[in-house]
Amino acid sequence: MKELGLLFLKLGVIAFGGPAAHIAMMEDEVVVRRNWITRQHFLDLVGATNLIPGPNSTEMTMHIGYEHARWPGLIVAGTCFILPAAAITGVFAWFYVRFGALPQVQPFLAGIKPAVLAIILGAMWRLGKAAMKDWTMVPVALGVTTTLLLGTDEITALLVGAVLGMAWLLAVARFRSGALFSAAPISLQLLAEAANGDVPLWKLGLFFLKIGAILYGSGYVLIAFLEGGLVHDLGWLTEAELLDAIAIGQFTPGPVLTTATFVGYVIAGIPGAVVATIAIFLPSFAFVAVLNPVIPRLRRSPWTAAFLDAVNVSAVALMLVVVLQLGAGALVDGSAWMIFIASAAAALLLRVNAAYVVLGGALAGYFLELLFA
User: For the purposes of burial, counting CB atoms within 10 Å of the CB of 104, is it exposed (0-12), middle (13-18) or buried (19 or more)?
Assistant: First the structure.
């Protein structure tokens, strides 16, 4: 339990770059270095988190904690991953309220971004080899990648890829076995298991509890919820304050949902920060507790196993698109390319721990900024 807590405390401090980067770091720590779970089961967990509301990478920490130590592990892993990000965001919120501005961290971020990109690339390569079991997975991956690049949102692309991919994989399996038109019953029990300052603190908590319970998709979806609810409907924040809150979420490590910590502090001080943080993450603990015991049973059914395989390939395709999109925004000059190539060599060839890759990228970005300023 101590090792579990320390691991996710560390990841909560260094996990920059969004969910894909967080999951890449977790794969390196729990599959490659510690061998706590197999790469196939890790992929199944990644696929499952894409099908429920909430922050994917935070829910992955809870899944890993549950696998390692059941209920206590789920709570310890999830809490330890959230706490550092919430604490760092809280410090920024205090700084913002006290001084009316945010500290300058851009030189460090300039180096962190290409380093994180290299970490995602390494994880995508390893998970892709596990997910692409044979040639039948290729059409699923290509289809999902194409739809994502054409602008389809992540949830739609993943669900369509999973359903159509399941049908494709089952059809191929039956063709190979000579039973193309046979029927495979779906267990109803299995499906049932799978389905299972002036602002009052209770009102603030209820607002973020609702977001945590229904939030699908990327951080941009969170921004839409906050803008519509906090600025237009409730009038708790101004547009300028919301933009500053979003900026904090972008350059702090850990889950982007700790933006709620910043918002809660601005609205109602430390109690508001605590209530908002607990409320937005609480549904994820419940969703993972219900879903995790079901996943091994899904793997035993031909239908749901094919569904999981299709979801896993779709998730790897999503990581590929994330790499391409982040690369377009991060690799903008020679310094960024230098950091990316060095980080990729460290992560892929030398197997350097992700924490050191991120730290090295941050320092390189700072010193290159001084050198070329």
Answer: exposed
308 with 316: CB under 8 angstroms?
no
Q: What is the pLDDT of residue 169?
A: 82
Which of 193, 199, 194, 171 is CA-nearest to residue 184? 171
pLDDT category at 219 given cuts 50, 70, 90 is low
How long, in residues, is the chain?
Answer: 373
Q: Encoding tokens for residue 247? A: 């900026």
State how far the alpha carbon of 310 is from the alpha carbons of 112, 170, 222, in Å: 32, 10, 27
Tokens 């790897």 belong to residue = 316
Residue 235, judged by CB atoms within 10 A of its CB (0-12, 13-18, 19+), counts as exposed
What does the pLDDT look like over 145-184, one tens digit per residue? Answer: 888 788 776 667 767 777 888 888 888 877 776 654 444 3
The reported pTM is 0.64
- How many other CB atoms are there within 10 angstroms of residue 221's CB atom? 16
Q: What is the mean pLDDT of the chain?
A: 78
d(CA 249, CA 93): 11
What end-to-end distance do the CA atoms of the chain give, in Å? 46
pLDDT band, residue 343 (cuts 50/70/90): confident
Q: Tell me how far apart the alpha carbons of residues 321 and 299 are, in angstroms, rounded to a whole number.
A: 27
CA torsion sign for 315, 321, 326, 331 is: positive
Given a contact cutoff of 8 angstroms between Cβ atoms, the answer to whether 362 and 111 are in contact is yes
